[in-house]
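Before our next group meeting I need something from you. Please put the record directly below this note.
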Amino acid sequence: MAYEFFYWPGIQGRGEFVRLALEDAGATYVDVARGLERDGLGVPAMLALMRGENTSHIPFAPPFLRDGKVIVSHTAAILLYLGGRIGLAPSHEDGRLWTHQIQLTITDVIKEVYNSHHPIDEDKWFHEQKNEAIARAAIFRRDRMPKFLSWFEHILEANSAGPNHLVGSFVTYADLSLFQLVEGLSFAFPLASERELAKLPRVTALHKAMADRPRMKAYLASERRVPFKETGIFRRYPELDG
């Protein structure tokens, strides 16, 4: 049975981290909100679950995943659920939990990235909080981005089991998520990201290794890969880079 994946069809957002895992694993899945309404798919099908139709486990917001009768929401929880099932997590508990912890840290970075362009109110436009965003982004570029990225570099250095892997000797969903984080930061903060990545050879090597994986390369070149744009988590505003 195919996994049913639910996320907004027009943006990468938090859902892209799940898509990358499904695509790289070659898992069979239906991207529900991108489907046709006449087939019972599309955004209305996603909203129906969010209203609690036919489930008591009501997701607060996408992304979420349905596997038969099981519904899992939140990116890190979905990946924790999927990891072992699609071959992208260690088989032992310690490794699974460590991979999950890394993913939760990536979740922390994502929140800070979003707050860099929407520091006051998520419902207001960027230009309505531009001065606050400039101040917040400066702190993110100066302090938070280097701190997070250097932590990933340190983990890669400490993992003696295999190069270009955060956990163990094979690819996990955390590796794919770090790839997506670097992609997003490079889009949103091209100048600051280039400066930081120049200091981080292991993070840079992991990013390249993930991009070169056959299924990843095919997905990234396909129409299924939604481009970065100014409506997702990672948004390019020149005023926020430097």
